[in-house]
Amino acid sequence: MTSTLKISSLTKRFDALEALKNVSLTLEGGKRVALLGHNGAGKSTMMKIILGLIPFDSGEVKVCGLTPGSAQARAQVAYLPENVSFHPAQTGEEQIRYYLSLRGQNPKLAMELLERVGLGHAARRRIGGYSKGMRQRVGLAQTLIGKPRLLVLDEPTSGLDPISRRDFYDLLDGLAADGASVLLSSHALTEVEARTDKILILSKGRMVAEGTLAELRAQADLPITLLITPANNGSEILSTSFPQAIRSDDGRFRLTCEQADKLSLLSRITALGDKITDLDVIPPSLEDMYSHFSRRDGQ
Protein backbone atom coordinates (compact mmCIF):
# COMPACT_ATOMS: atom_id res chain seq x y z
CA MET A 1 0.00 0.00 0.00
CA THR A 2 1.22 3.54 -0.82
CA SER A 3 2.80 5.47 2.05
CA THR A 4 0.89 8.56 3.14
CA LEU A 5 3.81 9.77 5.25
CA LYS A 6 7.51 9.05 4.83
CA ILE A 7 10.16 10.69 6.99
CA SER A 8 13.86 9.95 6.51
CA SER A 9 16.72 11.13 8.76
CA LEU A 10 14.78 14.21 9.88
CA THR A 11 16.70 16.77 11.94
CA LYS A 12 15.41 20.06 13.31
CA ARG A 13 17.29 22.58 15.47
CA PHE A 14 16.18 25.66 17.35
CA ASP A 15 19.45 27.51 17.93
CA ALA A 16 21.45 25.19 20.21
CA LEU A 17 18.51 22.84 20.86
CA GLU A 18 18.27 19.80 18.61
CA ALA A 19 14.53 19.15 18.74
CA LEU A 20 14.59 16.17 16.34
CA LYS A 21 17.61 13.97 15.72
CA ASN A 22 17.77 11.70 12.68
CA VAL A 23 14.11 10.59 12.94
CA SER A 24 12.70 8.19 10.34
CA LEU A 25 9.26 6.64 10.00
CA THR A 26 6.78 5.41 7.43
CA LEU A 27 3.00 5.51 7.74
CA GLU A 28 1.00 3.33 5.37
CA GLY A 29 -2.56 3.96 4.25
CA GLY A 30 -5.23 2.59 6.56
CA LYS A 31 -2.96 2.48 9.63
CA ARG A 32 -3.48 4.11 13.03
CA VAL A 33 -0.22 5.16 14.65
CA ALA A 34 0.25 6.56 18.15
CA LEU A 35 3.05 9.08 18.71
CA LEU A 36 4.12 9.08 22.36
CA GLY A 37 6.68 11.10 24.26
CA HIS A 38 7.26 13.35 27.24
CA ASN A 39 6.70 17.10 27.00
CA GLY A 40 9.57 18.46 24.93
CA ALA A 41 10.26 15.12 23.23
CA GLY A 42 9.69 16.61 19.77
CA LYS A 43 6.11 15.51 19.00
CA SER A 44 4.74 18.98 18.29
CA THR A 45 7.79 19.90 16.24
CA MET A 46 7.32 16.81 14.09
CA MET A 47 3.63 17.55 13.58
CA LYS A 48 4.35 21.14 12.56
CA ILE A 49 6.89 19.91 10.01
CA ILE A 50 4.43 17.36 8.60
CA LEU A 51 1.83 20.13 8.25
CA GLY A 52 4.36 22.40 6.55
CA LEU A 53 4.15 25.05 9.27
CA ILE A 54 7.90 25.15 9.99
CA PRO A 55 10.96 24.18 7.93
CA PHE A 56 13.46 21.49 8.89
CA ASP A 57 17.25 21.43 8.70
CA SER A 58 18.02 18.10 7.06
CA GLY A 59 16.43 14.87 5.97
CA GLU A 60 13.37 14.26 3.81
CA VAL A 61 9.63 14.49 4.47
CA LYS A 62 6.97 13.39 2.00
CA VAL A 63 3.25 13.77 2.71
CA CYS A 64 1.20 11.67 0.28
CA GLY A 65 4.30 11.79 -1.91
CA LEU A 66 4.30 15.60 -1.85
CA THR A 67 6.19 18.43 -0.18
CA PRO A 68 4.65 19.22 3.22
CA GLY A 69 2.79 22.52 3.23
CA SER A 70 2.25 22.55 -0.53
CA ALA A 71 -1.28 23.20 -1.76
CA GLN A 72 -1.53 19.63 -3.04
CA ALA A 73 -0.39 18.17 0.31
CA ARG A 74 -2.67 20.42 2.38
CA ALA A 75 -5.65 19.23 0.36
CA GLN A 76 -5.01 15.68 1.56
CA VAL A 77 -4.17 16.36 5.22
CA ALA A 78 -6.38 17.23 8.18
CA TYR A 79 -5.22 18.51 11.58
CA LEU A 80 -6.91 18.61 14.97
CA PRO A 81 -5.09 20.48 17.78
CA GLU A 82 -5.52 19.72 21.45
CA ASN A 83 -7.39 22.98 22.14
CA VAL A 84 -9.69 24.00 19.31
CA SER A 85 -11.16 27.48 19.04
CA PHE A 86 -14.23 28.60 17.13
CA HIS A 87 -16.35 31.74 16.95
CA PRO A 88 -18.68 31.55 19.96
CA ALA A 89 -21.52 33.36 18.19
CA GLN A 90 -21.72 30.82 15.37
CA THR A 91 -23.63 27.57 15.56
CA GLY A 92 -21.88 24.27 14.97
CA GLU A 93 -23.61 24.01 11.60
CA GLU A 94 -22.57 27.53 10.56
CA GLN A 95 -18.97 26.87 11.52
CA ILE A 96 -18.74 23.64 9.54
CA ARG A 97 -20.56 25.20 6.56
CA TYR A 98 -17.92 27.93 6.59
CA TYR A 99 -15.05 25.43 6.58
CA LEU A 100 -16.71 23.42 3.82
CA SER A 101 -16.88 26.57 1.70
CA LEU A 102 -13.19 27.28 2.34
CA ARG A 103 -12.32 23.79 1.13
CA GLY A 104 -14.47 24.13 -1.98
CA GLN A 105 -16.98 21.56 -0.68
CA ASN A 106 -20.78 21.70 -0.61
CA PRO A 107 -21.89 23.52 2.61
CA LYS A 108 -24.96 21.29 2.73
CA LEU A 109 -22.68 18.47 3.96
CA ALA A 110 -22.34 20.19 7.35
CA MET A 111 -25.18 18.32 9.05
CA GLU A 112 -23.92 14.96 7.81
CA LEU A 113 -20.46 15.65 9.29
CA LEU A 114 -21.89 16.82 12.60
CA GLU A 115 -24.07 13.72 12.80
CA ARG A 116 -20.99 11.54 12.30
CA VAL A 117 -19.32 13.05 15.37
CA GLY A 118 -22.47 12.94 17.49
CA LEU A 119 -23.38 16.64 17.33
CA GLY A 120 -26.45 16.56 15.15
CA HIS A 121 -28.71 17.39 18.10
CA ALA A 122 -26.70 20.55 18.89
CA ALA A 123 -25.89 21.66 15.35
CA ARG A 124 -28.04 24.81 15.57
CA ARG A 125 -26.88 25.87 19.02
CA ARG A 126 -24.22 28.56 19.44
CA ILE A 127 -20.71 27.20 20.00
CA GLY A 128 -20.32 29.60 22.93
CA GLY A 129 -22.67 27.32 24.87
CA TYR A 130 -20.81 24.11 24.00
CA SER A 131 -18.74 22.13 26.49
CA LYS A 132 -15.06 21.53 25.74
CA GLY A 133 -15.88 18.04 24.55
CA MET A 134 -18.52 19.36 22.16
CA ARG A 135 -16.08 21.92 20.74
CA GLN A 136 -13.58 19.09 20.24
CA ARG A 137 -16.21 17.25 18.22
CA VAL A 138 -16.70 20.31 16.01
CA GLY A 139 -12.97 20.19 15.40
CA LEU A 140 -13.18 16.52 14.53
CA ALA A 141 -16.02 17.21 12.09
CA GLN A 142 -13.80 19.83 10.46
CA THR A 143 -11.00 17.27 9.98
CA LEU A 144 -13.35 15.00 8.04
CA ILE A 145 -13.96 17.56 5.29
CA GLY A 146 -12.74 16.40 1.90
CA LYS A 147 -12.00 12.81 2.99
CA PRO A 148 -8.34 13.43 3.91
CA ARG A 149 -5.75 10.69 3.37
CA LEU A 150 -3.78 11.67 6.48
CA LEU A 151 -5.18 12.85 9.82
CA VAL A 152 -2.77 14.47 12.29
CA LEU A 153 -4.40 14.53 15.73
CA ASP A 154 -2.85 16.17 18.81
CA GLU A 155 -4.45 14.92 22.06
CA PRO A 156 -7.77 14.54 20.20
CA THR A 157 -9.78 13.08 23.10
CA SER A 158 -9.02 15.96 25.45
CA GLY A 159 -12.27 16.95 27.16
CA LEU A 160 -14.27 13.98 25.93
CA ASP A 161 -16.20 11.77 28.35
CA PRO A 162 -15.60 7.96 28.26
CA ILE A 163 -18.52 7.25 25.92
CA SER A 164 -17.46 10.00 23.53
CA ARG A 165 -13.89 8.69 23.57
CA ARG A 166 -15.11 5.24 22.60
CA ASP A 167 -17.21 6.72 19.80
CA PHE A 168 -14.22 8.78 18.65
CA TYR A 169 -12.02 5.71 18.30
CA ASP A 170 -14.83 3.86 16.54
CA LEU A 171 -14.87 6.72 14.03
CA LEU A 172 -11.08 6.47 13.58
CA ASP A 173 -11.44 2.74 12.99
CA GLY A 174 -13.93 3.45 10.22
CA LEU A 175 -11.70 6.06 8.61
CA ALA A 176 -8.73 3.70 8.69
CA ALA A 177 -10.87 0.92 7.18
CA ASP A 178 -11.61 3.33 4.31
CA GLY A 179 -7.86 3.81 3.72
CA ALA A 180 -7.07 6.97 5.71
CA SER A 181 -3.91 7.08 7.84
CA VAL A 182 -4.00 8.43 11.39
CA LEU A 183 -1.07 9.90 13.33
CA LEU A 184 -2.26 10.48 16.87
CA SER A 185 -0.31 12.12 19.68
CA SER A 186 -1.62 11.27 23.14
CA HIS A 187 -0.71 10.95 26.80
CA ALA A 188 -3.72 8.66 27.37
CA LEU A 189 -1.72 5.45 27.04
CA THR A 190 -4.54 3.12 28.08
CA GLU A 191 -6.67 4.42 25.21
CA VAL A 192 -4.13 4.08 22.43
CA GLU A 193 -2.89 0.70 23.65
CA ALA A 194 -5.94 -1.08 22.27
CA ARG A 195 -6.90 1.19 19.36
CA THR A 196 -3.73 1.71 17.30
CA ASP A 197 -1.77 -0.48 14.89
CA LYS A 198 1.69 0.87 15.63
CA ILE A 199 3.35 2.85 18.42
CA LEU A 200 6.20 5.37 18.14
CA ILE A 201 8.05 6.60 21.23
CA LEU A 202 10.05 9.81 21.03
CA SER A 203 12.50 10.84 23.73
CA LYS A 204 14.70 13.93 23.61
CA GLY A 205 14.13 14.22 19.88
CA ARG A 206 15.09 10.64 19.04
CA MET A 207 12.92 7.70 18.08
CA VAL A 208 13.72 5.26 20.89
CA ALA A 209 11.14 2.57 20.03
CA GLU A 210 8.62 1.73 17.33
CA GLY A 211 6.46 -1.23 16.45
CA THR A 212 3.25 -3.00 17.31
CA LEU A 213 2.35 -3.59 20.95
CA ALA A 214 3.60 -7.19 20.66
CA GLU A 215 6.87 -6.04 19.07
CA LEU A 216 7.47 -3.46 21.81
CA ARG A 217 6.84 -6.11 24.45
CA ALA A 218 9.43 -8.33 22.79
CA GLN A 219 11.94 -5.46 22.61
CA ALA A 220 11.40 -4.38 26.21
CA ASP A 221 11.42 -7.96 27.55
CA LEU A 222 9.77 -6.88 30.80
CA PRO A 223 8.52 -9.37 33.41
CA ILE A 224 5.04 -10.88 33.23
CA THR A 225 2.69 -10.93 36.22
CA LEU A 226 0.53 -13.93 37.11
CA LEU A 227 -2.34 -13.73 39.60
CA ILE A 228 -3.47 -17.06 41.06
CA THR A 229 -6.74 -17.51 42.91
CA PRO A 230 -6.56 -20.54 45.20
CA ALA A 231 -9.40 -22.89 46.01
CA ASN A 232 -10.55 -23.08 49.62
CA ASN A 233 -7.97 -25.78 50.31
CA GLY A 234 -5.29 -24.52 47.93
CA SER A 235 -3.49 -21.71 49.75
CA GLU A 236 -1.08 -23.96 51.65
CA ILE A 237 0.13 -25.87 48.60
CA LEU A 238 0.48 -22.63 46.64
CA SER A 239 2.63 -21.16 49.41
CA THR A 240 4.76 -24.32 49.45
CA SER A 241 5.06 -24.61 45.66
CA PHE A 242 5.79 -20.93 45.07
CA PRO A 243 7.48 -19.47 48.15
CA GLN A 244 8.48 -16.39 46.14
CA ALA A 245 4.81 -15.48 45.54
CA ILE A 246 3.29 -12.48 47.30
CA ARG A 247 -0.14 -13.00 48.80
CA SER A 248 -2.46 -10.00 48.51
CA ASP A 249 -5.24 -8.95 50.86
CA ASP A 250 -7.86 -10.56 48.61
CA GLY A 251 -6.19 -13.96 49.02
CA ARG A 252 -4.66 -14.15 45.54
CA PHE A 253 -1.01 -15.01 44.93
CA ARG A 254 1.12 -12.76 42.73
CA LEU A 255 4.07 -14.11 40.76
CA THR A 256 6.37 -12.44 38.26
CA CYS A 257 8.57 -14.16 35.70
CA GLU A 258 10.65 -13.42 32.63
CA GLN A 259 9.10 -13.92 29.20
CA ALA A 260 11.22 -17.01 28.58
CA ASP A 261 9.97 -18.67 31.78
CA LYS A 262 6.26 -18.03 31.24
CA LEU A 263 5.25 -21.38 29.71
CA SER A 264 7.10 -23.51 32.24
CA LEU A 265 5.63 -21.53 35.14
CA LEU A 266 2.13 -21.81 33.68
CA SER A 267 2.63 -25.57 33.40
CA ARG A 268 3.59 -25.80 37.08
CA ILE A 269 0.58 -23.75 38.13
CA THR A 270 -2.00 -25.62 36.06
CA ALA A 271 -0.59 -28.91 37.33
CA LEU A 272 -2.12 -28.02 40.72
CA GLY A 273 -5.53 -28.76 39.19
CA ASP A 274 -8.46 -28.14 41.54
CA LYS A 275 -6.22 -26.41 44.08
CA ILE A 276 -6.70 -23.23 42.07
CA THR A 277 -9.89 -21.64 40.77
CA ASP A 278 -8.56 -18.90 38.48
CA LEU A 279 -5.39 -17.65 36.83
CA ASP A 280 -4.77 -14.25 35.23
CA VAL A 281 -1.74 -13.60 33.03
CA ILE A 282 -0.96 -9.87 32.89
CA PRO A 283 1.57 -8.78 30.25
CA PRO A 284 3.45 -5.48 30.55
CA SER A 285 1.20 -2.53 29.73
CA LEU A 286 2.01 0.22 27.28
CA GLU A 287 2.65 2.48 30.27
CA ASP A 288 5.25 -0.02 31.53
CA MET A 289 6.99 -0.09 28.16
CA TYR A 290 6.84 3.67 27.74
CA SER A 291 8.52 4.07 31.12
CA HIS A 292 11.11 1.44 30.19
CA PHE A 293 12.17 3.04 26.92
CA SER A 294 12.11 6.57 28.35
CA ARG A 295 14.24 5.58 31.35
CA ARG A 296 16.66 3.78 29.07
CA ASP A 297 17.08 7.09 27.29
CA GLY A 298 17.83 8.84 30.58
CA GLN A 299 14.42 10.37 31.32
From TrEMBL:
<keyword id="KW-0067">ATP-binding</keyword>
<dbReference type="InterPro" id="IPR017871">
    <property type="entry name" value="ABC_transporter-like_CS"/>
</dbReference>
<dbReference type="InterPro" id="IPR027417">
    <property type="entry name" value="P-loop_NTPase"/>
</dbReference>
<protein>
    <submittedName>
        <fullName>ABC transporter ATP-binding protein</fullName>
    </submittedName>
</protein>
<feature type="domain" description="ABC transporter">
    <location>
        <begin position="5"/>
        <end position="229"/>
    </location>
</feature>
<keyword id="KW-0813">Transport</keyword>
<dbReference type="InterPro" id="IPR051782">
    <property type="entry name" value="ABC_Transporter_VariousFunc"/>
</dbReference>
<dbReference type="Pfam" id="PF00005">
    <property type="entry name" value="ABC_tran"/>
</dbReference>
<dbReference type="InterPro" id="IPR003439">
    <property type="entry name" value="ABC_transporter-like_ATP-bd"/>
</dbReference>
<keyword id="KW-0547">Nucleotide-binding</keyword>
<dbReference type="InterPro" id="IPR003593">
    <property type="entry name" value="AAA+_ATPase"/>
</dbReference>
<comment type="similarity">
    <text>Belongs to the ABC transporter superfamily.</text>
</comment>
<dbReference type="GO" id="GO:0005524">
    <property type="term" value="F:ATP binding"/>
</dbReference>
